[in-house]
Each structure stands twice: as structure tokens, then as C-alpha cells.
């Protein structure tokens, strides 16, 4: 369970420290696979994104096997963080939050990496819990929820884990997270466990089904806990997903010549298309997948693992279609900075100017 709306005193404090019109904010999300940054200017009614950065760094490469961040992975990530720091400095960021997720949570040397980041790049990363990660990701996606349906299952497929939330939507109120769950399976961890493609001794279909079954086994306790199937049968539940997997499949389904966020964000995927595209990709080699402009060489070895997570979710909750979100943790952070609801330490860093 996650915390409910803050009390009146906390709401008053939030108003006093909310971003001011014109103030430049930044949100940095360092995941197992990607390093992503958004920089935005606060307006009178919302924020406007003025700069962005995204790079596949694979920080969590090998962590599920060794229990530690690899030197090469840390080096790649530090270089990406230097780019982020330069952008934030150039844009005059005065309020920001930088978070690290599953790779740093799991790695024995995660805290050492944070020290290195602070020393070499000036980026002060904070390792957040799975519950905080889920809360931020779901918050960033809230605007895409259909208010005509009273419940929603929202999920975020990451590199090292997958977060799921069970939300209740009531008229005139902010969507409430009733329950959340995190499973330690993402595109990187599944790929490291099963490999990027089927071995010669196994059919692609068998290979793919083994991955899907592994995810389904991990989803079962949450599915039993929320008991959504009766509400699904009544048409009261919607499904919303945020991750490179769902955005990639949406781009493939629309046959985009190159990935286009403005077209993908807010689009819909039918479950039949999810299965069709996923099976086709599982039958291809990494080299063949890489030729798809919505996949490319950097995602070719990971995309089928993401498909397996998505297929397991679709099979577990037969809603029929899902809405695609190209947004998540970063947008959730920006919303919290805008409303003044980020953790206390974020504002102290901003006031002291020690974030860069």
C-alpha cells in the first residue's frame, strides 16, 4: 500500500515550496538500462519541457549474476551523467531531483557508485525504493487515464524490475493507488537469465513461452491480491503501460519509419497485436530485429524479454487493449517539484546549490 493524500499541514508546506513561475526544474532517472533527463520551465498552470537527454548505458549489466556494478558499465554511465550535468548547468536549473533505481538498489557497490557520481559529475543521485519508483512512474502517467473507467492497472517495465499498480479513479479526485507490486524481472534481468534468442536446440515458441511463464509466476500473488477479474468482466478496468517495450511495440504496430514520441504517447495497443508482434520478434535473430527502425542495435537483444513481460501482463488481466505512455518517473518527479511534494532533502539541495 502507498501513502494517501498528505494532511492539511503538509499541503500548506507544499504550496510554499512549489516551483515558482519561470523557475527551471530538472528530473533525472537512472535506471538499469537507461539514463534519462528532462529539464522544464515552470509556468502559471504547468511545466514546459525545454531540454531532454536519453542514453542507453546498461548500468545494471551483469548485476543479476555478479551482484555488483561492472567497471565498464559505471564508466559508460558516468559519461552520460556528465552530459546531464552540463545540460542542467547550461539551462540554469535551480530545482532538481536525480534518482537511481533497481541496479543501484541491488548492487553491493551501489553506494560507492553514487559517491563517484557526486565526485566526478556533481550529480547527487538518490537510490529510491520500489514503492517510490512506482509512485513516481504512475504519477507521471496519470493524465492518460480514462476517467470513465473506475479502476486501472498501471505498469512500468524496467531493466531490472517491473512495477505494477492497482488504482481507483473517483470523480473529482486524484487517482488513488490502492496497491502496488514490484517483481525483480525486467528486460535486462530476463535477457541475462534466458538469453536474447532461442538456442538451436529449442524452438522460438518454446523459448518465448518459458520467459512468459516465469513472469506469470511472479505476477500471480499480486493478481490474486487485487482480484480484478470481476471488474474486468464488467468493463471497469483499463490498462496503461509505460516502458521502452510498449512504446517500441506501438511504433512497430504503426509501422513508423522512425520512432516518434508525439505519435506513440497516448496511443493504444490491442492485445492481439501484442501477441502477433511479440511472436514475430521472438522468431527473429538479434541482427534481424536491429533492422527495425523502432528497435535498432541497442535494443535488439532486450526487446523480446520486454515482450515476454508484456505478454504475461496481458494474459493475466484480459482487458483487451492497453494505452501506451511515453512518460513515467521523470514526469512524476517534475510534477512533484511543481506541486512542492518532493522529499524535504530535494529542496534543501536546491536552496544550497549543491546539486551540481
Shape: globular
Give average pLDDT, whole number. Answer: 91
Look at the helices and sheets and give the structural class.
alpha/beta
Low-confidence stretches: 1-7, 350-356
* Strand composition percent: 15-25%
Return the string of H and E elements.
HEEEHHEHHEHEEEHHHEHHEHHHHEHH
Please count the beta strands (DSSP E, at least 2 residues each). 11
Number of helical elements: 17
End-to-end gap: 34 Å
User: What is the makeup of the main sheet?
Assistant: 6 strands, mixed
Radius of gyration computed on alpha carbons:
20 Å
Helical content, roughly?
40-55%
User: Looking across the biggest beta sheet, what order are the strands in?
Assistant: 8-7-6-9-11-10
Structural overview:
The chain is an alpha/beta fold. The chain is 47% helix and 20% strand. The protein has helices at residues 8-17, 63-66, 71-91, 102-106, 110-121, 130-141, 187-194, 204-226, 229-233, 244-253, 261-264, 271-282, 286-290, 296-299, 303-316, 329-339, 344-352; strands spanning 24-30, 34-42, 47-56, 95-100, 126-127, 151-157, 162-168, 176-183, 237-242, 268-270, 321-325. Strands 8-7-6-9-11-10 form a six-stranded mixed sheet, with helices on both faces. Strands 3-2-1-4-5 form a five-stranded mixed sheet, sandwiched between helices. A hairpin with a 7-residue loop joins strand 7 and strand 8. Helix 7 packs across helix 15 (303-316). The longest helix has 23 residues, at 204-226. The two termini are 34 Å apart.
